[in-house]
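Letters spell out the chain; backbone shape is given numerically. Take this protein:
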Amino acid sequence: MALDELKEGDASVDVGEYTFLIEDYLTESFGSFTIDYSDNWLRKGFTIIPDRGTSSC
């Protein structure tokens, strides 16, 4: 994740007061995403998870 400006080939999604930008080819490949933020002793930061079921096995 990074701060960026909308460019040609980007999709824009508003969630509450936030606007997320994602490159179109990623939505074509993976569909939608879940963005999760953790702030605990084990892990702090964002995780981006494709909603389309993927497997690492």
